[in-house]
Specification:
Layout (H helix, E strand, L loop, with lengths): L11 H5 L8 H18 L5 E7 H6 L5 H10 L11 H7 L3 E6 L10 E8 L4 E10 L2 E9 L2 E4 L6 E7 L5 H9 L3 E9 L2 E8 L5 H10 L4 E5 L1
Parallel strand pairs: 1-2
Antiparallel strand pairs: 1-3, 3-4, 4-5, 5-6, 7-9, 7-10, 8-9
Helix pairs in contact: 2-4, 6-7
GO molecular function: 4 iron, 4 sulfur cluster binding; L-serine ammonia-lyase activity; metal ion binding
Protein name: L-serine deaminase
Catalytic activity: L-serine = pyruvate + NH4(+)
Length: about 220
């Protein structure tokens, strides 16, 4: 019977990597995915982007196309989009201010391919630390959003939900209804609100994702899958 449990690599294509503009699945396709997750957290295209690279990313980002890959994800480009190599230029034409920083110290999340992204505009700032773990796959290690900071194990899928104190979490109810296994659950407090992080052991069905999208119309929920 086919399993719907999360695995590091679910098929040989995860090792080979996705269809993409090159040169590297880890430094290009993975970087696009990290940028795309930051875009999801921000909720669109920001006015300002700061990208701090660590270790291998810091040493090779220029030659491996990591700069244009990160920005491609932030702009919402797919890995095989012909605009990927021009993403930095396109973003600047659209008025996005971009800063790349090569950090000399070790990664704060102990991974060679680490990108620490801060996206902002005049109303909103978010931060996401992601790692590219091979074959285009990524992990989310730290997020800062809506006044919360949460450290995570990394593997996707991950769901975040912000609720008022005393409010019944809607995402938890939905996970129970669909029989989705929660591998880790985390809670961070900020004033009279709490952010609940669900790190999941199961892949999510299209039906579940659609119900999450419906909930997002009235609740603060972030899905990384």
């Amino acid at each position: 019977m086919e399993s719907n449990k999360v695995q590091n690599y679910k098929s040989c294509f995860d090792i080979i990597g996705p269809i993409m503009v090159g040169p590297s699945s880890s430094h290009t396709a993975g970087a696009i995915a990290i940028g795309a997750l930051a875009r999801q957290l921000f909720g669109g295209t920001p006015k300002n982007v700061r990208c701090d690279y660590y270790e291998s990313f810091a040493e090779t980002h220029k030659g491996h196309g990591t700069d244009f890959a990160i920005i491609s994800g932030i702009l919402g480009f797919a890995t095989d989009d012909e605009r990927v190599p021009r993403a930095v230029e396109i973003a600047k034409e659209e008025g996005v201010q971009i800063e790349f920083v090569e950090r000399k110290e070790m990664s704060p999340v102990n991974h060679a391919n680490t990108a620490d992204l801060t996206l902002s505009d005049e109303k909103r700032t978010i931060r996401l630390i992601g790692t590219s773990v091979g074959g285009g796959a990524v992990e989310v290690k730290v997020i800062e959003v809506d006044g919360f900071k949460m450290e995570l194990s990394g593997p996707l899928p991950i769901l975040l939900e912000v609720v008022s104190l005393g409010e019944m979490p809607k995402v938890y109810q939905l996970l129970q209804e669909h029989g989705v296994t929660i591998s880790k659950q985390r809670v961070e407090m900020a004033e009279n609100r709490q952010m609940i992080g669900y790190e999941l052991a199961d892949l999510l069905s299209p039906e579940f994702k659609q119900q999450i999208q419906t909930l997002r119309q009235t609740h603060t929920i972030y899905l990384f899958a």
